[in-house]
Amino acid sequence: MKNRLRVLRAERNWSQADLAERLRVSRQSVNAIETGRFDPSLPLAFKLAKLFDERIEEIFEAESPEGTQGQ
Amino acid sequence: MYFFDWLIAVTLHRNRNFSPLQRRSLAKFGSLMLLAVVMLAVAHESADHSTVAKSLVMVLYLLPAFPIMLMVRVVSQYLTRETDEFIRLLVMRSLLWGIGTTMVADTLLAAVFSDPRALRLAVVFNIDVFTVTAMIALSLQLRRAQ
Questions:
Q1: Which domains are delineated in chain A?
Q2: Per the confidence metrics, is the pTM higher than 0.90?
Q3: pLDDT tens-digit map of A10-53
């Protein structure tokens, strides 16, 4: 799953550690989500959306091989 | 082998990547593992002496089940209290590596040794292989996640 976490974080001048502290997770988790190695659960995705004041679908984008999203 | 266990436990305990919850759980798990190994060693020694009653030897072999069950409880409590879902995933993966490697080691041990005495020792060997593999797997995964 693609996401805009790195961009959103950079806009606020937050380090991965800052974001991790706000989310109450480890810095490794933030790194894993940013690099797409780990997809967060729905509660964590909601937490991120609330923190950045965006909707979940504005932060995360599902990857589909045919480029047909939402099917 | 036990020195190797101890060395890994100390290294991991000093690992700055570990949270206080992880350190506490690791300390509890390590202590229980040591207790189980000592109890198994006592049972094994007793089995070698003909003066010890067979029923007592059987009881001594059953007793290590308690620290082993408590080890499972420590892991279960840790997984319940761990709020970081990514770290929880890494721990689960490490435990699976530990279980898988122990099963492979057991299969190899059963194929090589047919002596019941050697198979009795396999219980101690199992705890050791499981713990060492799971610890190494967790350490490597945490390093990769940096």
A1: 2-61 (1.10.260.40)
A2: no
A3: 999 999 999 999 999 989 999 999 998 899 999 999 999 999 99
Positive or negative: CA dihedral A18, A23, A24, A29: negative
Convert B104-122 to b/e letters by CB count within 10 Å (16 or more is b): ebbeebeeeeeeeeeeebb
Letter for the amino acid at B141? Q
Contact criterion met (CB < 8 Å) for B87 and A26: yes
Which residues from A are below 8 Å from B83, CB to CB?
A: 24-25
Mutate to test the interface with B, among A29, A30, A38, A46 (most CBs of B within 10 A): A29
Q: CA angle, B86 as apex, B128 and B145 as ends, to 5°?
A: 75
Q: Residues with Cβ < 8 Å from A57, sequence gap 6 or more?
A: none
* Strand stretches in chain A, DSSP E: 2-3, 60-61
Which CA distances in Å does B25 have to A46, B47, B100, B122?
Answer: 29, 33, 22, 25
Taking each helix axis from N to C end, the angle separating B20-48 and B116-144, rounded to the nearest 10 degrees, works out to 170
The reply to whether ipTM tops 0.90 is no
